[in-house]
Amino acid sequence: MQLFFQFLGLLFTIVCQDPNDAVFSQSINVVLNGQLKHYFVGNVVVHASSRQEKNEYFPDDSTTFDDDGTPEFIEYLEPYDYDQFIDLNDLRVSRIYPDVNKNQVLPYDIQKGNMSNYMVKKYLGDGTFAFVQSAIRLSDGLPVVLKQIKKEYTWWAKMEAKVLNTLNQENNPNIVQMVDAFFNESSPVLVFKELQNCTTFDYRIYNYYHDLTSSDIKQLYYKLFQALATSHSKGIMHLDIKPANIIINDDQIQLIDWGVSDFYFPMKEYRTRVGTRHYRAPEQLIHYKYYNYAVDVWALGSIFATAVFKKYPFFNGRNNDDQLLKVVKVLGSEDFFKFCYKYNVRVPNDLYQKLRSYEKIPLEKFINDENKELATPQAIDLLNKIFVYDHAFRITAKDILQHEYFKDL
Ligand SMILES: *[C@@H]1O[C@H](CO)[C@@H](O)[C@H](O)[C@H]1NC(C)=O
Ligand SMILES: *[C@@H]1O[C@H](CO)[C@@H](O)[C@H](O)[C@H]1NC(C)=O
Ligand SMILES: *[C@@H]1O[C@H](CO)[C@@H](O)[C@H](O)[C@H]1NC(C)=O
Question: Residue 197: CB within 6 Å of ligand 3?
Answer without folding.
Answer: yes
